[in-house]
Write a structure and sequence with these properties.
Bound molecules: zinc ion
Number of helices: 9
Strand order of the largest sheet: 1-2
Distance between the termini: 97 Å
Strand content: 5-15%
Number of domains: 3
Length: 169
């Protein structure tokens, strides 16, 4: 491989030290290091301008960006899965704390809604004599109910059904 002189630092460097620019079908005139420094300086100098530009672009291309993101996710499913797993392992405690906070905020914000949902769920459980309802009668959790003899649970269901029939007569 040949060498090239960087127009910025004036040093003679291997071609691999220069990025290839597809648009011009040639290597950049600045070496990678100088180009990076130049980019960084440009970013620092134009922070606000870039931010504003990005904002406008994002707003104007909402749908396009969404499509792009979707396509990227579909194409890189495995990679993303691995990355998020790695991220999760690294930030387990932080994520747990965040989730807890989020749940708490949601509960506080939607107190009435949650209350209503709970009531509806309970009503349905009662009607259908679900495991949740039976567990409640036995003052236990659904998980613990699984350790009860199935006959006992079935018997309780029949008992409740009979009581309802009698009550409705
Ligand atoms: Zn250079």
């Amino acid at each position: 491989m040949g060498t090239k002189i960087c127009t910025k630092c004036g040093k003679k460097k291997e071609l691999s030290e220069f990025s290839f620019c597809c648009n011009r079908n040639n290597f950049r005139s600045k070496c990678k290091q100088c180009y990076q420094e130049y980019n960084e300086r440009y970013r620092q100098k134009n922070k606000e301008k870039i931010k504003e530009k990005n904002k406008i672009y994002t707003f104007e291309n909402k749908r396009k960006i969404k499509e792009q993101k979707k396509r990227y996710r579909q194409k890189n499913k495995e990679k993303i899965k691995k990355q998020s797993k790695k991220y999760y392992i690294k930030n387990k405690e932080k994520i747990k704390e965040q989730n807890k906070e989020q749940k708490k905020r949601y509960r506080q914000k939607n107190k009435e809604k949650i209350k209503k949902q709970k009531k509806i769920r309970h009503q349905k459980d009662k009607e259908n004599l679900t495991s949740a309802y039976i567990a409640n009668i036995f003052h236990t959790s659904i998980k613990n109910l699984k350790q009860y003899p199935p006959e006992l649970i079935e018997l309780k269901r029949i008992q409740l059904k009979v009581a309802r029939v009698i009550k409705n007569k």
